[in-house]
Design brief:
2 domains, Bact_metal-bind_prot9, Rossmann fold, alpha/beta, 4-stranded parallel β-sheet
Length: 345
């Protein structure tokens, strides 16, 4: 009797929901998602170590990863144009969370000047001048992620012509700096959205996702506190970055950056740009110039010519760090250590 009842009992038991196949665009986002997933799964990443999301074209294996995804977390098309063009077609069956478009995401305006206003309190931490109601979130529900239509029409670069002037290199100069993951406040705010999207796809593990998000937030807070202490001696130091990808980090920690060799979209600088930067370095006595592993460092010579200035490496993607749940706190710590180490020489 027990033997005959067992199949019926098994049929009456609801099938456990599977942990969704999850894909991210860049390593810092992968780290945040991994911290929420914990032991339940490991999200993939589309932009490999050493590549720049500004111009990375998906390899066939990366396209297949995107095609098989049930959940996609990415910054947005202003950072990764090729991924933006592919998501709507390759990941048509996935739930897509565009982090830059979330109402919780704080934005800073793109800087188009050769030399930044170092030392001024121009960074607006309240971001009141960026009204998120102006963004079209019709493709999002209340926790910020997309459903069946994914709002992809909103992310098609053909629809950005009115707002973005495209230069000769095919880059888009958006009104807002797309390097939003370098704000620890943004990263912490995204954790709940990530947990919500995962919980909707996998409700049986919702409590685990929520608990993991809370733990991850505490770890980010601890890393930020440590970074503030590390960077305290560097508050008045001037330095140059290879490309203007660190504005959110600068705003979070009150740093004074003289300028960038490449602008926010990684556009190649003009000779006049390099000359102005070289003169500014000589005038201010900038302590350091930071190279990046994603770009050829030869342009640094144009800025250091005639100047005694240290050169070190800074990476907005944390390419040398171990991927996984602890990535983002280690990322904040690594950036702070590198800036303090070079500017304090």
């Amino acid at each position: 009797m027990l033997r005959s009842a067992l199949p019926a009992l098994l049929l009456a038991t609801p099938l456990a929901a599977e942990v969704p196949v999850t894909v991210t665009d860049i390593a810092p986002v992968q780290g945040l998602v991994a911290s929420v997933m914990g032991d339940l799964g490991s999200p993939g990443v589309l932009v490999p170590q050493g590549a720049s999301p500004h111009d990375h074209a998906l390899a066939p294996s990366e396209a297949r990863s995107l095609q098989n995804a049930g959940l996609v977390f990415w910054i947005g098309p202003d950072l990764s144009p090729d991924i933006g063009r592919k998501i709507g077609t390759i990941a048509s069956g996935a739930t897509v969370v565009t982090l830059a478009d979330l109402p919780v995401t704080q934005h800073l305006a793109t800087r188009d000047e050769v030399i930044f206003e170092a030392g001024d309190d121009d960074h607006d931490h309240d971001h009141d001048d960026h009204d998120h109601d102006d963004h079209d979130h019709d493709g999002h529900d209340h926790d910020g992620h997309d459903h069946d239509e994914h709002g992809q029409d909103d992310h098609d670069h053909d629809g950005h012509d009115d707002d973005h002037a495209e230069d000769a290199h095919g880059h888009h100069h958006g009104p807002e700096d797309p390097h939003v993951w370098l704000s620890p406040d943004n990263a912490a705010a995204w954790l709940d959205v990530i947990a919500g999207a995962l919980s909707e796809a996998d409700p049986e593990n919702a409590a685990t996702y929520a608990a993991n998000a809370e733990t991850a937030r505490a770890e980010i807070d601890a890393a930020v506190a440590q970074a503030r202490e590390t960077l305290a001696p560097a508050q008045d130091a001037r330095y140059v970055v290879f490309h203007d990808g660190y504005q959110y980090f600068e705003a979070a920690f009150g740093l004074k950056v003289l300028g960038a060799i490449k602008l926010s979209d990684a556009t190649d600088p003009s000779p006049a740009h390099l000359l102005a930067l070289r003169e500014a370095v000589a005038k201010t006595g900038a302590a350091c110039i930071f190279a990046e592993p994603q770009f050829n460092p030869r342009l640094i010579d144009s800025v250091t010519e005639g100047n005694e200035v240290a050169v070190a490496e800074l990476d907005p993607l944390g390419s040398t760090l171990e991927p996984g749940p602890g990535f983002y706190p280690a990322f904040i710590t690594d950036l702070a250590d590198r800036i303090a180490g070079c500017t304090g020489r």
